[in-house]
Amino acid sequence: MNLRVIMNKSSNVLKKTVNFCWIYLLQEVLSAIQKGKPGAFSPGRPTQFLRNYKSSLDFLAYLEGYCPSRSAVAKFRAEAIYVEFMKQWNVGVYFSLRFQEIAGALDSALTAASLAPVQNSNSNQGNSQALTLKQSVTLLDSMKSCWRQDVFLLPCSDKFLRLSLQLLSRYSNWLSSGLAARSSGHASFNPGNEWAISAAPDDFIYIIHDINCLATEVSGDYLTHVLQLLSSCSSEVLDLVKQSILEGGKSLSSMLPVVINTIVDALVEKAVEDLRQLKGITATYRMTNKPLPVRHSPYVSGVLRPLKTLLEGERAMTYLTPEAKNELLLDAATQITSRYHELAAELISVARKTESSLLKIRQGAQRRAGASSDVSDHNVSDTDKICMQLFLDIQEYGRSLAALGVQAADIPPYRSLWQCVAPSDRQSLIKF
Questions:
Q1: Where are the alpha helices (DSSP H) in 254-313?
Q2: Could you tell me if 97 and 44 are in contact, meaning their C-beta atoms sit under 8 angstroms apart?
């Protein structure tokens, strides 16, 4: 629509009979568009619709430039033809189409059955270059699309703001529902949860990294850009916009502990596979007359191996911050040690009950044979041997923790484990 050409030809007339020409010219323009280009008002082609709409606003602003006062502008906008002209632009339908386009792209990415790492992410251009997953890149691209020059429409600013926050919420829900499904061991009949069930522990490092990147972007450059586009709004409105976007970023960041705990759970599960070999200690020393052990069991070296492998892997070294690595290390070490203590305490409890039962049986046999039941057996008991083996094992385990940067004595479950298996003369000081 080349409306400026019309205006240039009519400018001299407008200066003489402004009000009349406003109404007349707008009527003619509306009629000409409806007859010659009826598709100009159709939002079915969003890009063309937006271009035409912006041209119409430029045209009206040009007309209003001839108004001698603000009251004259208000009067012009109240004219029936002005109202009729603006009604032709169905911005509500336009937004609905953009909504489907933008939200659909994210939904498509989030319904994938697995995490999709971005190929050659280091060579990507733009603000999303640091993101590692296609799902995360699509989220940021979708949120930015709401405010792109070829998409954003000021009359729909509240709707685009709501959409951007809904996109962020959709991503957060995708994360939380997937992690919950993994924790419960099934996909909860939600087709968007398979990714979490099949993901390897180090895959979640990508998620930790992307959450940090997204939270930084949302509360930084993204927020600044949105506030600039809405700078014509009142300070009260801008404060609400800022608060809502920052809250969305905080909500996303709140997922970090859950993601870290998901990795920890997987590492604990793998560690327990080795810790279950504790049961073999009983078979080794129960009624076998073996001497006291002098070295740790082979299983100990495997307990922390999955944790060490993950922390020293390329993904952790590349994408985890030192703070995240320390948190992951301490959480995993604490929970693995807690399970170690549970299994060791159970093993010793069973051993002592068994030994007590055997002692009663032996004492009963001695009484029936007429022997004194008060005779003490000064030999080292099977339970003593089991406890000594466990004591050697937890010392080696403590050294493994120290090699990872964790002081075993600082972990409450390790202190409990030490008290559980250490000889009486070693109880007071944890040293190995």
A1: 256-275, 279-285, 300-303, 305-311
A2: yes
409: number of Cβ within 10 Å: 16
Measure the CA–CA gap between 390 and 81, rounded to whole angstroms.
91
What CA–CA distance (Å, rounded) separates 239 from 228?
13
Rounded Cα gap, residues 31 and 35, in angstroms: 6
Q: Where are the domains of the chain?
A: 3-89, 92-254, 261-368+378-426
CB atoms inside a 10 Å sphere around CB 377: 8
In tens, the pLDDT along 364-376 reads 666 666 655 454 4
Give the residue-averaged pLDDT of 390-408: 97
Sequence letter at residue 186: H
Please list the alpha-helical segments (H only) found in 130-156: 134-145
| pLDDT tens digit sequence for 22-53 | 677 778 777 777 777 777 777 888 988 888 88
Sign of CA dihedral 341, 347, 352, 357: positive
- Two tokens at 160? 């685009």
Task: Give 133's strand partners.
Answer: 117
Q: Kindly state the tokens that stand for 263.
A: 């990795």
Of all residues in the chain, the percent with pLDDT exceeding 70 is 86
